[in-house]
Amino acid sequence: MKAKIYVTLKKGVHDPQGEAVLGTLKHLGFKDVKGVRVGKYIELNLDGVPADKARHRIDAMCAKLLANPVIESYSYELD
Amino acid sequence: MKAKIYVTLKKGVHDPQGEAVLGTLKHLGFKDVKGVRVGKYIELNLDGVPADKARHRIDAMCAKLLANPVIESYSYELD
Q1: Superfamily covering domain B2-78
Q2: What ipTM score was computed for the predicted complex, to two decimals?
Q3: At B34, is the secondary structure helix, strand, or coil?
Q4: Taking a C-beta distance cutoff of 8 angstroms, is the pair B44, B5 a contact?
Q5: CB A27 within 8 A of CB B20
Q6: Mean pLDDT of the A54-75 span
Q7: I want to staple A62 with a disulfide (CB 3.0 to 4.6 A). Which of A40, A66, B35, B48 is the partner?
């Protein structure tokens, strides 16, 4: 079972990396870009783990390591 | 139009960040995790740009700034 995990800053949390990307995109001529937010994309394999257990594992991994629950939220897809 | 862009290391490219995450997950007790790969997830808005133009813009942004074409590949979704 393959998991695709998206970790993003919560709404309202300042995103300096996103602002830097936005500034550079505008400088490069992409004038109609707005609201850039940069997060993490994590792929991992949970071989032999059924989907319901995989969801529990991923929630635990995000709580313990992959996301900072104070400022980040996460979502995921299972393949 | 909102774009969700996923930038990942190409297959075969060494991913030290992914290896570090994998090692820590195993150390935390997640023994059945394998093959962690860490990439970037970028959200941006292209207000008032139709879908076909947005695709061109995103390809150009990835080529010029968001992805390193030597070692990274990207994909995206438009909302």
Answers
A1: Phosphoribosylformylglycinamidine synthase subunit PurS (3.30.1280.10)
A2: 0.91
A3: strand
A4: yes
A5: no
A6: 97
A7: A66
CB spacing of A39 vs B44 below 8 angstroms: no
* Burial classification of residue A29, based on how many CB atoms lie within 10 Å of its CB (0-12 exposed, 13-18 middle, 19 or more buried): exposed
Q: Tell if the CB–CB gap between B42 and A45 is shorter than 8 Å.
A: no
Residue B11 is given by DSSP the state: T
Q: Name the minimum distance, in Å, from the CA of A20 to any CA of chain B.
A: 11
| B6 phi and psi angles, rounded to 5 deg | -115, 120
CA distance B33 to A39: 22
Closest residue by Cα to residue B1 from B44, B40, B41: B44
Domain extents for chain A?
Answer: 2-78
